[in-house]
Amino acid sequence: MLDKEFDELVHYLEGMIADGVQLIHGGHLIDWQDTNVLDLLGEINKKKEAVKELSYKSGDLLKNRYTGQKVAVVNDFGDKVMLILTEETIKHPIDTLWYHYEKSEPGD
User: Fold this and answer.
1) Cα separations in angstroms, 50 against 8, 20, 45, 97, 100
2) Distance separating alpha carbons of residues 43 and 11, to the nearest angstrom
3) Residue 76, pLDDT score
4) What pLDDT score was predicted for residue 107?
5) So what's the pLDDT on residue 1?
6) pLDDT by residue (tens digit) across 66-98?
7) If you placed Cys at 86, which of 27, 50, 66, 70 could pair as Cys (CB 3.0 to 4.6 Å)?
8) Do residues 86 and 71 make contact, with C-beta atoms less than 8 angstroms apart?
9) 58, 71 contact by CB (below 8 A)
10) pLDDT tens digits, residue range 26-39?
11) Residue 4 CA, distance from chain mean position
12) How confident is the model at residue 21 (pLDDT cuts 50, 70, 90)?
């Protein structure tokens, strides 16, 4: 899944900014403040903090942001939840399928 790589990219960008790495565009030095990177990193961090505040309990209904499919929380174990489908089949847009799923062999 890309979440790990995404978090790693954010970590590296924040490290580069903190270390004072300078950007060059068209042969001219530019500051990080002259880009949208700082605003985007701020939004990402704000959303990550908001997610930490969320809590789920058995019976809560959730909707997948990408597919719109609904699931129900059946158990909350603190750091993980068990979800069941509220519909008979899973639907997913083909263009983001790879983002959430990977091929698996029987028995994996």
Assistant:
1) 19, 28, 9, 26, 22
2) 14
3) 74
4) 74
5) 53
6) 778 888 988 877 778 888 888 777 777 888 777
7) 70
8) yes
9) no
10) 999 999 999 999 99
11) 9
12) very high
The one-letter code for the residue type at 41 is L
The amino acid at residue 96 is T
Tokens representing 71? 């699931």
Q: How many CA atoms lie within 13 A of 81 on its CB side?
A: 16
N-terminal to C-terminal alpha carbon distance within the chain: 16
Taking the C-alpha atoms of residue 53 and residue 46, their distance in angstroms, rounded to an integer, is 11
Q: What pLDDT was estimated at residue 101? A: 76
| d(C-alpha 69, C-alpha 17), whole Å | 39
Q: 7: which DSSP letter?
A: H
Q: Tokens 């790990």 appear where? A: 4
Which residue type does 45 have? N
